[in-house]
Amino acid sequence: MWPQKIFFSCLLTVLILLGLLVLINGHQPRSIPVAPPNGTTPRLSVVASNFASYDFLRAIIGDDEQVNLQFLLGPGKDAHTFDPTPQDILAVQQADLFVYIGGTMENWADGILASSDHRPARVLKISDFVTTKPEQEIDDMQPEDEDESEGGFDEHIWTAPDNAIAMIQTLTPEMCTLNPTSCDRYQTNARDYIDQIQTVDQQIQALVTARVRDRLVFADKMPMQYFINYYGLKVSAVFAGCSSESEPTAKTLATLEKRVQIEDIPVVLYLELNPGTLAQTICRDLGTCTPRQIQSLHNISLDDFARGETWVSLMTRNLDVLRAALL
Ligand SMILES: [Zn+2]
Predict the structure, then answer these.
(1) Domains of the chain, residue spans
(2) Its pTM surpasses 0.90
(3) DSSP letter at 136?
């Protein structure tokens, strides 16, 4: 009799503990989308071409399980060499909402939309909803090949906080139209995220106000024109934002090194997804600067994506870099 009693009281204890665990787990914030309780798959498909649009949609949608959000480019890839696979094309064609930036960088998207009768239910070309700028001349930059320099507006709209907020304010009503029953929570989530963007904006603004120099030097492409203009900074770079080149001429390199020397530039920048070899070479040659990586949010690395980094967290990471470069 006794062993049986002990067995059942042990079993009961285990069951109570399991029950508690399930309860506790149920109250944890969910970071990974899970299937709805009734086991159906999400009924709405939203496809975003690039990281910024994906990140803003992810923040707006939150834990709404009715929506499946896809990041088409995917982490760790160069947005300028993206070539959609047949599955990518199908995902766009079957989407309930397809969001893309547009411009020469995303000619492939215009191609998909024009080439077939199968179109996504809704399409949002988000660069139509921010004030775009033509690509500007950048100090010290290597002259571009003619076929690269023609191309209308600068597509890297997401690098400035005002544009990021305008993108969210465009995406939120779009999501409300797509799924009206979740509109209240989309609006709440959007307000929260805009607050976070404004916080990091104020932190950067404080650094810019306290600056002792106002030039950022990129030993790389320079896709941050909107950021530079928004904060009233100056910039030197080796290549334009969309250049496919990666090896500068000796003359370009010498011009940039001279700039670093004359203006006593303490930090030479390179972008995410770049190992920073050129910046390291320059700073080793000169011995007066430090190479640092800056996040242009052009895309996110595989590691940062796996860690759940966001526009806000990556822009916050830039604070240290900007402090070293400007103060
Ligand atoms: Zn670019």
Answers:
(1) 44-145+152-193, 209-326
(2) no
(3) P
